[in-house]
Amino acid sequence: MIRLEKLRKEFGDVVAVDDIDLEIREAEFTCIIGPSGSGKSTTLRLVAGLEKPTSGTIYIADRDVTRVPPHKRNVPMVWQLFVLFPHLNVRQNIEYGLTKRGIGRKERRKRVEKIAETLGVERFLDRWTNELSGGEQQRVGLARALVLEPPVLLLDEPLGSLDAALGLAVQSELKDLQQRSGITFVYVTHNQSEALAMADRIVVMNEGKIVQIGSGTDLTDHPGGRFVADFVGQNNVVDGTVVSNDGSNVQVRCPLGSVWGRVLSSEKQLTGPVAYAISADRMRLASSEADASKEGETGAAADSPNIIKGVVRGEEYRGVWTTIVVEVNGTMIRASVPSEERPSLGEPVALSWSSEDAMVIPI
Ligand code: ADP
Ligand code: MG
Questions:
Q1: Ligand 1 test: best mutation among 10, 13, 42, most atoms within 8 Å of CB?
Q2: For the domain 2-219, what is the CATH superfamily, name and number?
Q3: pTM for the whole structure
């Protein structure tokens, strides 16, 4: 649906987008993720035609649109969905694009009512936008873009200013809507959990370059490097050195001690300096008996779980789960534990995890 070839955008000395090649498939939900300043918004604005590339080519549905002005590309862009026209009511906001295109009154009415129903805002059609909650306003903003039935919808951090609970609700609605409509979504976010929840494919950007493309599972299970491991869900990444490697089980010496992990099949020969990554979600609190029996044997065998001891230094309550921050030999490690079982600050704890869940990545 969209193809970028050697696309580049410079702002003075800054290379915002650095010769990227990318194909976005029709009817897929593609997320572009990366830290702030990695070039996500610029990429999206180039596709929308809101920026002119320094070099490279943009195809939409096999048509070279590199020099086509934005209003002729039929790829609407939604930012923070809040941006509604305050002087128009909900109905007028949604039908704005249809009116501009000269679509007749009867047809407009039909299409507005259909999309309003899909998005659950049909009861608000005659209200002013300031009489709606944040979530309702966002749904109206989406309706305004979707009523045009675009082949592609570009979204730049549209849930950015919503509180977490509302954000989650709109996330699942968006995913649902994308699947039902078959519209190609390109969704930019710096929030990896948003991408993991919604995307069919995730494009990871860093410093203007694409560092990896894959499904959420590809990225979490087979990160293409330390950056991706760090950015996508592996909340604990530490530097280490390979001590032994039999082609599948790898022993690594790192600030956590001597620990075991696995290598990707393509990295069977891995030696030397590496990154050791383990997700907070794969960490468990080890019971005191297990702790006692394993004491001093950390990582002694590939088939026994890794166990480390530390002291709780922080916690982030997240409802059913709490992320605790545990200091281990001066390194901070994060672990998700059931909130009901969370230890107190300052308490000594033991954490364990399976070698299968820890990844050893070349750096
Ligand atoms: P992201 O959306 O990933 O946070 P952006 O695409 O907005 O990143 O920005 C990428 C880089 O390009 C940043 O260094 C940013 O400061 C720079 N940049 C973006 N837009 C402009 C602009 N209009 N003028 C100058 N520099 C810009
Ligand atoms: Mg941005």
A1: 42
A2: P-loop containing nucleotide triphosphate hydrolases (3.40.50.300)
A3: 0.79
